[in-house]
Amino acid sequence: MLHNDMQHSDWWMPAEWARHAATWMVWPHNQALWESGWRVTLSQVQADFARVANAIARFEPVKLVVDPSALDSAKALCGPNIELIALAVNDSWCRDSGPSFIGHPQLGLAGVSWRFNAWGGKSAHDLDESLARRTLNHLGLPCFGTPLSNEGGAIHVDGQGTLITTESVLLNPNRNPGMSKTEMEAIFARWLGVTKTIWLPGDPQYVTGDMTDGHVDGVCAFARPGVLLVDATHDQASVYAEVARENRRALELATDAQGRRFELIELYEASEAVETDAEVFCASYTNFYIANGAIIMPAYGIAADQVAADVLAQAFPGREVVPVRINHLAHGGGGVHCITQQQPAWPVKG
């Protein structure tokens, strides 16, 4: 059931490292989209998705939404412990089209359904715009609607009142024309328990060609409150270098909801993996996913994978770092974080 207003103000969004009940993903099935747009085959992309799903399933349950037309391919590639849920979908970016799960001390778990418009109308979304609601209906959880055009990959939270986002996404006319920062921050405060929103520039000139217009999960990621992994590049002459510098500068000047300055840990991108003729390619190691007891890390079969794994192991002591090859998925402009969505365990722990 979709609710347009929340009658209680104590809702909040747990951090990604809080204990999960499950991870949600959506199986890729749109052959025309992948093979005409990004010059990879659907079977290659499905193999990457399956590797991610099977890696996560070692640590927690995985619920995989599958378009009814693609059930056979999902069954063939995914392990028997992955639950397949038949729902009609357009695309496969669950972080963005799926719900953002929230909790309330008395009312329990629920979810927010952002107004999903496929990153400013860049692709068909007549089915995906209702995926969050249908996912929550499947779980029997309340679904709260919002006037904000947003995607899960556009926000990071620390579970202690801090949210980080980018101006190039949420202030983009293709998302929320006429809506102010103040109005957006009020939505985050009411629905996610946010008391401090940090605005990074993102990719204001759209130099990367990223379909999302500069999601924050390609810029940085929390390791814990007050500590961030930040995307960086060794190629200081590239068009992306200035984008990375400006985002880092904004983080250096920021304080979180508790008044702390951030400790910033550089995580250099996988520049060597980018193919010269690639229209778009997600080379950001910050696009990892925090699972129960593990970090599921994008990998590309290059030496930089081990360097990134070592950085992540230091940032997340006690969690197993699991590199997963995603070279074909990366041609769609996304990584591991883009295709996953955490469902917190209730009551929230960690």
Distance between the termini: 29 Å
Order of helices and strands: EEHHEHEHEEHHEEEHHEEEHEEEHEE
Q: How many domain modules?
A: 1
Question: What is the name of the CATH architecture?
Answer: 5-stranded Propeller
Helices, by number, come to 10
Beta-strand content bin: 15-25%
- Helix percentage: 25-40%
CATH C-level category: Alpha Beta
User: By CATH's scheme, which homologous superfamily applies?
Assistant: L-arginine/glycine Amidinotransferase, Chain A
* Major pleated sheet: 4 strands, mixed
Report the uncertain regions. Answer: none
Which class do the helix and strand fractions yield? Answer: alpha/beta
What overall geometry do the principal axes of the alpha carbons give? globular
Using only C-alpha atoms, the radius of gyration works out to: 18 Å
Task: Provide the CATH topology.
Answer: L-arginine/glycine Amidinotransferase, Chain A
Organism: Pseudomonas proteolytica
Protein name: Agmatine deiminase family protein
GO molecular function, one term: protein-arginine deiminase activity
Pfam families: PAD_porph
Task: Describe the structure concisely for a colleague.
It comes from Pseudomonas proteolytica. This protein has 350 residues and is an alpha/beta fold.
How would you portray this structure in words?
It comes from Pseudomonas proteolytica. The chain contains ten helices and 17 strands. It has 350 residues and is of the alpha/beta class. It has one domain: L-arginine/glycine Amidinotransferase, Chain A (5-stranded Propeller). The protein has a four-stranded mixed sheet with strand order 1-7-6-5, covered by helices on one side. A four-stranded mixed sheet has the order 4-3-2-17. The chain is globular and about 50 Å long. The model has no long low-confidence stretch (mean pLDDT 95).
